Amino acid sequence: MSAEILAAPSSGIAPVGHYAYDQVDRAFLHDRVEQFRDQVARRLSGTLSEDEFKPLRLMNGLYLQLHAYMLRVAIPYGILDSRQMRELANIARTYDRDYGHFTTRQNIQFNWIRLEDTPDILARLATVDMHAIQTSGNCIRNVTCDQFAGAAADELLDPRVHAEILRQWSTLHPEFSFLPRKFKIAISGSPNDRVAARFHDIGLVAKPGRHGTVFDVFVGGGMGRTPIVGVHLRDNLPEEDLLAYLEAMIRVYNEYGRRDNIYKARIKILVQALGAEGYREKVDAEFAAMDRARYRLPPETVAAIRARFGTPALDAPSDAAERLAGARRADAAFDRWVRTNTHSHRAAGYISAVISLKPDGGIPGDATSAQLDAIADLAERFSFGEIRISHMQNVVLGHVRQDELHALWQELGRAGLASANIGLIGDIIACPGLDYCSLANARSIPIAQKLSARFANPDLQERIGDLQIKISGCINACGHHHAGHIGILGVDKKGEEFFQLTLGGSAASDAAIGQILGPALPEDSTVDAIAHLVDAYLVHRTDGERFLDTYRRLGAALFKDAVYALA
Amino acid sequence: MDVRSNRREAGGSSVVTANRLLDGRIVWLAGDGAWSGRIDAAHVFSNDGIEAVIDATARRQQADGVVGVYGVQVRDDSTTPVPVTVRERIRAFGPTVHPEFATLTEVPPDVR
Ligand code: HEM
Ligand code: SF4
Predict the structure, then answer these.
(1) Hey, whose CA ends up nearest to atom 31 of ligand 1?
(2) What is the ipTM of this complex?
(3) Topology of domain A144-305, per CATH?
């Protein structure tokens, strides 16, 4: 859908934090479900072969994985309302094995789906304005966003309106349905990068300019087998040129990106080949030549989209902060959770709460149907029914009254959702790995489980401090291992699992790619090796230094000895 | 199919596997030509003749209601078929992180 069909404001009550669909959107989704129902019927009858059917099911988010079909459902810019969350719980309960898995791209995956059920599942998703379109294939994928968008104290502006505009522009974009390779866009409105903007095909940072919103643009970042930190393409792109400029960027990619070699097909390879300057020149030439009026994003359109977003009425009592402080003094465990699992809110008396999906010894990103329902209930009670999924595989309630935070925490405890480990060693990203994924070399989840169990002690976790461990089961790097302070990559040696460690990566504003420490380790010594790395850090760190800082200051040799000298 | 999963050594033996079209579940080719959800029902073929078996089976996959037919080498030190690679052991016995989803409850603990 390009700019001209952006919808007009509706009169209904919009859900807080995301865009309200109208009849046109709903009719489209309905047709799309029926189209897929027909395709499935033709596949089952044999009219369509697997080779013909595969691209069609992938366009609807349906993969064939190790044990079953896997359905990937988009959560646009990571925002759900409680009604949508309950439907996800229903789907998990009715059609899957009672749980779902949140991914690093703000999607949810169901691992045990039957092909024959999929049209019904998509129909149920459509009843709550959700779908699985463009969660696979060489198109523009789900646009991801800051999990604290519209709430964070450090935010300059709420990027979700622009994320929605990009969603509408990129959905079924006729020119960009068959790009050389998949295309991922992230957008943030804070100078503190929480979306890994420099690891996306396009990363956007929105900020207020002298004459309205402007964007800093990064291009050509990515993980996979060729990890690259994106280059800073330009500053202060005016809002009205946002779609035109992105259009130009992707046209150049569509024209010059390689289609002969899947490993060289991402835009990052093109940008490296042309050089940042060369690529910028081509984009600028395209931008100058194109019909700019057609892609112009006028302020009225932005306002119309904004009007379709519900906004929370933030009116905490004046003693909210004081009451939170009192509750923290009275309850040390709560106080610890507040230290690790909350984020400052822009409005007085409010706070954002992070619900960790990383219990000690648990599977990162998994939630049972009962937990999904509990989160929906708590969102209604404490945060205007609005729920956010973070790229760290956690859940955020954005707008919680400070005087109600203690009650929320108690309820989370009852649902098994009160782990106090956000940003700490227990907050591990792990891809599905060899337990589910047909591309995997090794299992990711068991390593995460062993690590979080080993470092379960909350005092120890806080003493170790900010430490991001990220695990991928193969070089595709879905678990972001390249950007981990400690990255763990599964490799296959003659059918057995080995793990390669990388140190020094970061997905934040100081983005960097981790460096390989040494030879890959067998599974049973990998967890010990991480413990040795942590010990070495604790011995050598200076006050206030994160693991990453100590590594950057002292280099790899010391850590290498810690792991390999003992072996 | 990924070469990694499909590699075989001369002199070894293999079973034939696929995913069921309707629900994606893993199946194994039994002696009577039917597909079973249990690897312990699978027929073990010598690697010498297996390519022909895989080809013939792949040709009738639509009629059989399966997709992605390939061969999986099994250990020669076990009386029931146990795949040599971790990947295929996970396919055969279920994800290691959910013991309650095990496909065979009586799997010997040392095969994981
Ligand atoms: C289980 C099915 C999955 C398959 C088949 C799959 C496949 C892939 C492939 C082939 C790549 C490399 C793309 C490239 O370099 O061109 C990739 C990258 C990536 N995937 Fe996945 N993936 C799966 C699951 C996931 C999950 C569960 C997550 C989130 C936890 C995820 C998030 C990502 C991210 C963030 C990247 C790296 C960013 C990029 O360069 O695109 N994927 N995936
Ligand atoms: S990193 Fe590899 S193993 Fe992990 S989900 Fe991605 S493709 Fe699968």
Answers:
(1) A478
(2) 0.90
(3) Sulfite Reductase Hemoprotein; domain 1 (3.30.413)
Is pLDDT above 60 for A5?
no
Token pair listed for A76: 């646009």
Q: State if residue A477 touches ligand 2 by the CB under 6 angstroms criterion.
A: yes
Calculate how far, in angstroms, residue A372's C-alpha sits from the geometric centre of ligand 1: 24
Q: What is the mean pLDDT of chain A?
A: 94
* Beta carbon of A103 within 6 Å of any ligand 1 atom: yes
Sorting pLDDT into bands at 50, 70 and 90, what band is B6?
low
- Residue located nearest, by CA, to atom 2 of ligand 2: A474
Structure tokens belonging to residue A333: 């465990």
Pocket test for ligand 1, best of A101, A438, A472, A478 (most atoms within 8 A of CB): A478
Q: Domain map of chain A by residue range?
A: 3-127, 144-305, 320-414, 429-564
* pLDDT, tens digit (0-9, with 9 covering 90-100), for A27-74: 999 999 999 999 999 999 999 999 999 999 998 999 999 999 999 999
In chain B, which residues have their Cβ closer than 8 Å to the Cβ of A65?
Answer: 24
Which pLDDT value is given to residue A159?
Answer: 94
Interface touch B97/A445, C-beta < 8 Å? yes
For chain A, the straight-line distance linking the first and the last C-alpha, in angstroms and rounded, comes to 58
Average pLDDT over residues B86-105: 88
- Whole-number pLDDT of residue A15: 84
> What is the tens place of the pLDDT at every residue in B39-58?
999 999 999 999 999 999 99
Name the residue among A151, A382, A140, A368 with its Cα closest to residue A253.
Answer: A140
Intrachain domains A3-127 and A320-414 with the same fold = yes
Contacts of B85 in chain A (CB under 8 A): 495-496
Ligand 1 and A200: CB distance under 6 A: no
Q: Which of A266, A365, A294 is nearest to A6 (CA)?
A: A294
Sorted by sequence, the CB contacts under 8 Å of residue B42 that are 6+ apart come out as B15, B16, B17, B28, B29, B30, B36, B81
According to CATH, the topology of domain A320-414 is: Sulfite Reductase Hemoprotein; domain 2 (3.90.480)
* A114: nearest CB among B22, B67, B86: B22
Residue from A365, A418, A420, A412 nearest A393 by CA = A365
- Confidence at A566, pLDDT banded by 50, 70, 90: low
Q: Do A64 and B24 touch (CB under 8 A)?
A: yes
Kindly list the residues from chain B whose CB atom is less than 8 angstroms away from the CB atom of residue A48: none
The answer to whether the CB of A177 is under 6 A from ligand 2 is: no
What kind of fold does domain A429-564 have according to CATH? Sulfite Reductase Hemoprotein; domain 1 (3.30.413)
What are the extents of the domains in chain B?
A: 3-101
Q: What number of C-beta contacts closer than 8 Å exist between A and B? A: 75
Would you state the pLDDT for residue B110?
41
Q: Phi and psi (nearest 5°) for B37?
A: -80, -5
Q: What angle do CA A384, A389, A395 make, to 5 degrees?
A: 75
The verdict on a CB contact (< 8 Å) between B97 and A496 is no
Take atom 24 of ligand 1 and give the residue whose Cα is closest: A478
CA nearest A367: which of A102, A81, A85?
A102
Q: Is A479 touching ligand 2 by the criterion CB < 6 Å? A: yes
The predicted model gives A359-378 an average pLDDT of: 97
What pLDDT score was predicted for residue A10? 39
> Is the domain defined by A3-127 classed in CATH 3.30.470?
no
In sequence order, the β-bridge partners of residue A102 are A108
Rounded-to-integer distance, Cα A344 and Cα A366, Å: 26
Contact list, B3 vs chain A (CB under 8 Å): none
pLDDT over 50 at A8, yes or no? no
